[in-house]
């Protein structure tokens, strides 16, 4: 297919873990062109995407830039939209998500895929506070009112959280792994770096099949105890669980949360929500991503493939 006749997909947050996966899958398929939106075209990650063949568009991913976003979405057949990690209490995730979607409509984009999460406020009747979930659900509600073809993907807890944000430490010969979940509670997890792209590629390859769909992306449903056992089997290292599910445990093992009590409240609200209400609504098709991508990594495969041995890992620019 001549390069210019391939559909063009604009990717917001292209250098993020989700975004990089989307850009990689779309380009590797050989069937799409990609415009990668970034705040900094000179970053190592952005240059990496350009090296793969993505066109770069430098645009702020922040409120008040709808005009620049419209330009960045111009002539795109599709757009992958996501909101970056923004901390409470001043997170502008909901208005930012709306701005992205409105800009896509104004630019005449054919189909948007938005990375969303469940509405925790609604599901818990206000008992749990996790605005970075609920705000994404409100953005999805807004998108449903727009005259644009749309599909939602929804990522599970990331495996990478344990490498990036909740890294273990070593005591003697043992890797100490504090988890934000109870030891035996099974939750959905996924590798955002390898699972987001195949899901989004599937949607843009068969857009009519997925009009209005809400699609969970799941690699494994696994408990901390099972994750630690698999980690030990793969690495040969001794490892032990520690409880960072309670506020006391979270602040003890990850003192950074004490710097922003809203962030601690939000994290606790999120994990209590997942444990008491379920990360995904019961009617979600949690098998979908494995059906369309049987190679979606389980936790054990993720540890094996990444050679992770418990050290902190940075995935950013
Ligand atoms: N962690 C989890 O378990 C989990 C699970 C499901 C969903 N999520 C959601 O996934 C989203 C994050 O995705 P990710 O982990 O793929 O992102 P990420 O790797 O942290 O990257 C975020 C990207 O967003 C851009 N960005 C723009 N404004 C930013 C800002 N103010 N702060 C930080 N980055 C900013 C940056 O790109 P440029 O510098 O190139 O512009 C950066 O590469 C969040 O909305 C989070 O709620 C997380």
From TrEMBL:
Q: Which SUPFAM superfamilies match?
A: NAD(P)-binding Rossmann-fold domains (SSF51735)
Task: Output the superkingdom of the source species.
Answer: Bacteria
Q: Where do the NmrA-like domain residues begin and end? A: 6-281
Q: Which organism is it from?
A: Actinomycetospora termitidis
Would the keyword NADP turn up in this protein's UniProt record? yes
Give the record's keywords alphabetically: NADP
| Similarity annotation | Belongs to the NmrA-type oxidoreductase family.
This protein's record includes keyword S-adenosyl-L-methionine: no
Q: Tell me, what's a Pfam family for it?
A: NmrA
Q: Which InterPro entries match?
A: NAD(P)-bd_dom_sf, NmrA-like, NmrA-like_oxidored
- Name-wise, this protein is NmrA/HSCARG family protein
């Amino acid at each position: 297919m001549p390069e210019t006749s391939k559909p063009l997909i604009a990717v917001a947050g292209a250098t993020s873990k989700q975004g990089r996966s989307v850009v990689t899958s779309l380009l590797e398929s050989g069937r799409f062109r990609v415009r990668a939106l970034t705040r900094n075209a000179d970053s190592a990650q952005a240059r990496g995407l350009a090296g793969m063949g993505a066109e770069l568009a430098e645009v702020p991913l922040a409120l008040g830039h709808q005009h620049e976003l419209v330009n960045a979405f111009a002539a795109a057949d599709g757009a992958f939209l996501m909101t970056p990690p923004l901390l409470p209490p001043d997170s502008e995730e909901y208005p930012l998500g709306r701005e992205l979607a409105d800009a896509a409509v104004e630019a005449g984009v054919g189909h948007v895929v938005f990375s969303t999460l469940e509405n925790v406020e609604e599901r818990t009747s206000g008992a749990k506070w996790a605005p970075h979930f609920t705000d994404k659900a409100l953005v999805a509600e807004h998108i449903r009112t727009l005259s644009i073809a749309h599909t939602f993907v929804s990522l599970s807890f990331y495996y990478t959280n344990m490498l990036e944000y909740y890294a273990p430490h070593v005591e003697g010969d043992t890797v100490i792994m504090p988890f934000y979940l109870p030891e035996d509670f099974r939750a959905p997890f996924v590798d955002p770096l390898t699972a987001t792209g195949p899901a989004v590629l599937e949607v843009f390859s068969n857009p009519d099949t997925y009009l209005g769909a809400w699609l969970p992306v799941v690699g494994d449903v696994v408990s901390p105890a099972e994750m630690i056992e698999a980690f030990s089997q793969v690495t040969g290292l001794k490892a032990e669980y520690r409880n960072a599910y309670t506020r006391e445990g979270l602040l003890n093992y990850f003192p950074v949360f004490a710097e922003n009590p809203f962030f601690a409240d939000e994290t606790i609200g999120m994990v209590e929500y997942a444990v008491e209400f379920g990360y995904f609504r019961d009617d979600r098709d949690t098998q979908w991503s494995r059906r369309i991508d049987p190679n979606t990594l389980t936790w054990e495969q993720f540890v094996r493939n990444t050679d992770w041995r418990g050290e902190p890992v940075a995935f950013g620019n």
